[in-house]
Amino acid sequence: MTKENPAGAPPLLPIGVIARRSGVAVSTIHFYESRGLITSVRTEGNQRRYAPVVLRYIAVIKVAQRTGIPLEEIREALRRYPPGSKLSAAQWKTLASEWRDDLDERIKRLTRLRDELNQCIGCGCLSLEDCPLRNPGDSLGSKGPGARILERP
Amino acid sequence: MTKENPAGAPPLLPIGVIARRSGVAVSTIHFYESRGLITSVRTEGNQRRYAPVVLRYIAVIKVAQRTGIPLEEIREALRRYPPGSKLSAAQWKTLASEWRDDLDERIKRLTRLRDELNQCIGCGCLSLEDCPLRNPGDSLGSKGPGARILERP
DNA sequence: TATTGACCTCAAGTTAAGTTGAGGTTTTAT
DNA sequence: ATAAAACCTCAACTTAACTTGAGGTCAATA
């Protein structure tokens, strides 16, 4: 029986260990925590201790990011389950399916764009009226300042 | 014969007209010019006047952006031709082909990712050792601060 | 002629996703 | 008991691609 830990529960990990094992920087973990993506408890000395499951959380976050989901949305998705909960296989399946659909949509858009581009390489007009490339149709929501996220309108 | 214009050349346009016809904000045109993507001449009164071809330039820029090419690269690509030059059909073909290939590569990466995700939805392990999702293989170049461009490693 | 609308410059703000650094506290190893 | 390694907080910086705003000039119109 360890001291800071009720019987049976796996031991809590300090941030350095999480960083090493997950492959992300300590500062990133701080950042994720500040954004509510992961949680920790504190020692008497105010140092963070993480349940091992956060390694899984970080893995999930990274995968979601690779598919192009912004952190904010990832947080919302994770929020659906109690913070720091076990994140079961079923839950992962749900999340991953949503993200896959999202990714699929993105791929479709890009593929359509590529086809249009191919067409247009033949014609070369870029005419405002005729060219499909010039009439995005959907995806015309570029408002406000800030970095433009490439493809995800 | 107009005054500011040698015989035969099409008349130069003020920035407001370019903005209206191209669909981008005046501030954006300023910005593109400051980044060397387009050029203008000035009137005696220091106002910008654009050759009509910049409408085409802006069109090209927008298309390239849609395919995910960053402005910096777009500028480099355009730099290969004399600034403000006619941008012939052949030149457009060359640029567009490059960008299409780039886009193609991106699509392939995303497709691979989607397939891996599909696999992983079945297994749900996210194991550091086994899971293909956890071993990006390529694309591990995330260094330094600044916005992470989603997909384009 | 006077106004209004279009322009100009330059500095500063915005977003996302983090990083860097200063100044100070805790833990761990010797 | 120290010293070194690991942590902590908080503010400021970074990139990309723009936007906003202040303070001032130019040009077309009534």
Automatic annotation (TrEMBL), chains A, B:
SUPFAM superfamilies: Putative DNA-binding domain. GO terms for biological process: response to oxidative stress. Residues 12-80 form the HTH merR-type domain. Signal peptide: none annotated. SMART domains: HTH_MERR. PROSITE patterns: HTH_MERR_1, HTH_MERR_2. Keywords: 2Fe-2S, DNA-binding, Iron, Iron-sulfur, Metal-binding, Transcription, Transcription regulation. One of its GO terms (molecular function) is DNA binding. NCBIfam families: SoxR. This is Redox-sensitive transcriptional activator SoxR.
